[in-house]
Amino acid sequence: MRSFLKDKKTLKACRIYSMLKRHARQRRVSFHTPGHKIGKWDITELPFSDNLASPTGCIATAQAEIASLLGAEKSFLLTDGSTSGVYSILHAARTLGVKRVAAPALSHQSFFKGCELMGLTPVLFSLGSVGGIPLPVEKADFLDVLKSADALFLTSPDYYGNIPELAAVKEICERENKWLLIDGAHGGHLRHEPLLYAGTYAHLWVDGVHKSLPALTQGAVVSAKTKETAVALERAVSYFRTTSPSYPIMASVEYAVKYPRNLPVEKKARELCFHYGRFGGDWTKLIVRVKDGVEAQKTFEKAGVDAEFQEGNLFCFYLSPATPLRALHRLEKLLKKLAVKGGENFVERVPAPLFLTKEEEMRGTEEVELIRAEGRICAEQCGIFPPCLPVLFAGEKIGREKIEKLLRASSTFGLREEKITVVKK
Fold first, then answer.
1. C-alpha span between 57 and 341 (Å, rounded)
2. 337 CB-contact burial (10 Å; exposed 0-12 / middle 13-18 / buried 19+)
3. Is the CB of residue 346 less than 8 Å from the CB of residue 131?
4. SS3 (DSSP) at 384
5. Residue 64: CB partners within 8 Å, gap ≥ 6?
6. 271-321, pLDDT tens digit by residue?
7. Angle at CA 386, nearest 5°, toward 190 and 312?
């Protein structure tokens, strides 16, 4: 734990870490969970360690300080990842009277699963893309569908670093009297840049701090802007948070939110984005196009460099304030040889998704081998992760290009043993 949390100045301001440190120094005998019985740092709810479900001690103080830093009325620690945060804001939105939610078709699967679970109707709109990379959301994309919805759900930044014009989005939502919900799973670091930060604008939002800040995997925060939304959110998190939270994860989340801005790393990262990739507004997402994806992957592997993901000739490198400068210089040497410019001037629209018709629903579904599914009607959303975005939607006619894209992917969702659910003929 101590080797992971390295910034001593930040550690001194962390309430949960301080409690764990005091406990670790004592020679206590564990007759409580967890079962490994060796955890001086990994403990359960004890009289001195507070309780996430009803905090009054160090956890309560940590959450209050996090809320203050994020500009929230209330913030809640999550040890179950951003997905539980997305579920929580959708549940809170339903409590606030939301029934229909406008959202981009290329939203994370947790949005679609959350809507299904909460009985909300997604009202989806399409986005443009350039060179296979989605474009930022613009008001023209959602203005029409927002009129038939009660809330707008956005991802900011998205997996490719795109950030919508959030000030304009907020103005539209206020004018139309709609709730603004933001999945900021990839933007916890942006609290240092208020004009780009989801929490500056949203009524309810999620920060997945483990993705772009020095926190343990699954560490996240969900926040509410006002007292009204905070009441709804506090009830919602009680449904989706574990009753056995990890104290190391909670401590790392507090540490990550309080972690200072690293301007030298930001500056170098922006240089790399400008010279070798693209810049969608978020410096932690370096999207690079190479001439030959297979050969480039071999070169990166040989050099001991692991990208966040590869999609054909596109590579995504995830950076953070904790990225060492020497690592960026090491990456730069490879990019000088491999990165190519161009090929991004063709703008296409990502089609708005379809839904199964009543007649198709009545016909039922079956599973077929993906390789033999060309021309069939997809019955269940499926895609690739990372970034966990849909490739095929229910109601869409399955084409050869998307079949090959899914077959090439190392990890998918919605498929089972290379079989896909389709509508019966």
1. 53
2. exposed
3. yes
4. strand
5. none
6. 998 888 877 789 999 999 998 988 999 999 999 999 998 888 889 999 999
7. 110
Look up residue 156 and give its two tokens: 């900011």
For residues 245, 251, 254 and 258, what is the CA-based torsion angle, rounded to 10 degrees?
-170
Short-list 59, 53, 52, 54, CA closest to 20: 59
Which residue type does 302 have? Answer: K
Structure tokens, 410: 């190392």
Write out pLDDT tens, residues 111-161: 999 999 999 999 999 887 777 778 889 989 999 999 999 999 999 999 889
In the block, tokens 């090491």 appear at: 330
Q: How far apart are the first and last CA of the chain?
A: 56
- C-alpha to C-alpha distance for 54 and 57, rounded to whole angstroms: 9
Dmax (CA) for the chain in angstroms is 68
* DSSP per residue, 276-313: HEE-SB-TTEEEEEBS-HHHHHHHHHHTT---SEEETT
Kind of pairing between the strands at 204-207 and 179-184:
parallel
- CA separation for the pair 380, 121 (Å, rounded): 16
Strands 347-349 and 128-130: antiparallel
